[in-house]
Design goal:
The structure holds two protein chains of two kinds.
Chain A lengths: L1 H6 L4 H17 L7 H36 L9 H6 L10 H35 L14 H20 L8 H44 L8
Helix pairs in contact in A: 2-3, 2-7, 6-7
Chain B lengths: L5 H6 L3 H17 L10 H11 L6 E6 L6 H17 L3 E6 L2 H18 L7 E6 L3 H10 L1 H5 L25 E6 L4 H7 L5 E6 L1 H12 L5 E2 L2 H12 L5 H36 L1
Parallel strand pairs in B: 1-2, 1-4, 2-3, 4-5, 5-6
Classes of the chains: A mainly alpha, B alpha/beta.
């Protein structure tokens, strides 16, 4: 009886859970067949998501980084920032479209500048790590085992074959073609691993919802957390 | 009309029946008190070892960018990691580049920290929703207080005891990225080199991250609910990772059985048709 009393939507918190359950079941009703119940909740979800994002957009971005610095801290120069960004909308005007290119130019310049840093921090260490791999056991690499050497050779073989596959500057024939085919096989194995993980992730989405139905709605406690 | 063979009936089975079986299978393995022992994978062990190296009072940035859709993977990860950080007496702050994630991670952190007696403002804080991670990281590296300005409760950053003396992201020892999005390359690209980066991706994101793990750009990784289960095992706690990983594992078994049965039925039907001809 206690469970049933708690189960009913008698408090605001329980009511919100019941609404969440109705939304969940409505969305999953598509698995049975297409129905208006599903359509209604699908549109409601999209509308809610769009509406929800407006709140943080104003409070956490427009107010925090634009209105407050101008009105509270007196950084009046910030007043020009948002109008400058809005010049982008001149892209819809035939006559004044050139104004939008000023903003686009700024964005491209900033992105290009950032990419220099990104390349050096993101890709160079990977190149460095690849070039540093020992391919034989020597006194300079006392910790390296035969297995490590095998793995390093395999790594280099996969790297070269996959890079060969993506070399389109000339016709691939003979050894190059066979290496490229090997590269394609390695790529397929890699993509298979990604797809396997994707199935696991999709299953996790369903489990998340079922957890909500069991734990939050039906109050069947799961796990020790 | 010729009666259908058993193989034809198997091949034309209503897909809704398969959905129902999958649903029942997940419910059963979520509720069943099964405790399977997971073998600890090297990325999870490395993750654990990196946190073990932290000293009490060290400062960690948790980038939490997940929302309700990836709860089954990111929630057990975050809960397990928070438990470990609190066990080490480490200070931590949250940042979210996703609006929904701000509320979800804040509520989760409040629940987990209050159970452990961790005090908001003194031992942990939440910076709220910060748009554009690249700009935010570059800003925090240069001047953290003027980039973040205030926490999720509206308190100015300078007034939070947990951030006493903190001027830049360089004052942190570690970043932990709990995310279903491709945010870790941004942390790798723009955060200070001395900052150690740990990664908690969803399963779908994990395969791509092995290059960063291999090159040492990230120091450890917890992959989805399975990784969370391993981490809980390392910590000796009972969280959501184990039941979620059980449900995932057995739903995979069921899917594999469906695939095998479907292929077997197709082969048998072909053989039957050849014989009929």
């Amino acid at each position: 009886m206690d469970w049933f009393t708690e189960f009913l939507p008698r408090t605001p918190e329980r009511l919100s859970i019941w609404i969440g359950v109705i939304c969940t079941l409505a969305i999953y009703s598509l698995l049975y067949r297409e129905n208006p119940f599903y359509r209604f909740f699908e549109h409601m979800y999209i509308g809610l998501a769009a509406g929800y994002s407006l709140g943080p957009l104003f409070v956490d971005i427009i107010y925090r980084y634009w209105i407050e610095p101008i009105w509270v801290q007196g950084y009046w120069a910030w007043a020009f920032v948002v109008p400058y960004g809005m010049y982008l909308y001149f892209i819809f005007s035939e006559r004044y479209g050139w104004i939008s290119r000023i903003v686009i130019g700024t964005l491209i310049g900033a992105s290009a500048g950032l990419f220099f840093q990104e390349f050096s921090s993101r890709y160079l260490p990977q190149l460095n790590s690849t070039l540093k791999r020992p391919l034989w056991i020597s006194s300079a690499n006392p910790d390296i085992t035969g297995w490590d050497v095998f793995v390093n050779f395999l790594f280099i073989a996969i790297l070269i074959s996959v890079l060969t596959y993506f070399t389109f500057s000339y016709e691939q024939r003979g050894v190059i073609k066979r290496t490229a085919i090997l590269g394609r096989w390695f790529l397929m194995i890699g993509l298979g691993a990604i797809f396997g993980n994707t199935v696991m992730a999709r299953m996790a989405l369903l489990i998340g919802r079922i957890y909500y139905l069991l734990n939050d709605w039906l109050m069947i406690r799961i796990g020790g957390g | 009309m010729q009666p259908q063979t058993i193989w034809q009936r198997m091949l034309s089975i209503d897909r809704r029946l398969l959905y129902l079986l999958l649903f029942v299978n997940i419910v059963a393995f979520l509720v069943a008190p099964i405790r399977m022992t997971a073998s600890i994978s090297p990325p999870v062990q490395k993750f654990y070892d990196e946190i073990e190296k932290l000293k009490p009072g060290d400062l960690v940035m948790i980038s939490s960018n997940w929302s309700a859709s990836t709860l089954a993977e990111n929630q057990p990860q975050l809960e397990a990691v928070l438990n470990h950080l609190m066990r080490k007496g480490v200070r931590f702050t949250f940042i979210s580049i996703e609006a929904q994630s701000r509320d979800i991670s804040y509520r989760l952190a409040e629940r987990v920290t209050s159970a452990a007696g961790y005090k908001y403002g003194e031992q942990w804080a939440h910076f709220g929703f910060v748009p554009n991670l690249t700009v935010a990281i570059k800003g925090m590296v240069n001047d953290l207080p003027s980039t973040i300005k205030q926490d999720v409760r509206g308190t100015p950053i300078e007034k939070l005891p947990v951030l006493h003396g903190v001027k830049s992201l360089r004052d942190y020892q570690m970043v932990i990225d709990v995310t279903p999005s491709n945010t870790v390359p941004v942390w790798i690209s723009y955060s200070p080199k001395e900052l150690r980066i740990l990664y908690c991706p969803t399963s779908v994101m994990a395969a791509e991250a092995y290059t960063y793990l291999d090159s040492g750009q990230i120091k450890g990784m917890i992959t989805g609910a399975k990784g969370a289960q391993e981490y809980e095992q390392l910590l000796g706690i009972r969280g959501l990772g184990a039941p979620f990983a059980n449900a995932i594992s057995f739903s995979h078994v069921l899917i594999i059985i469906f695939i095998l049965l479907g292929n077997f039925a197709m082969l048998m039907q072909r053989r039957y048709e050849r014989r009929e001809v």
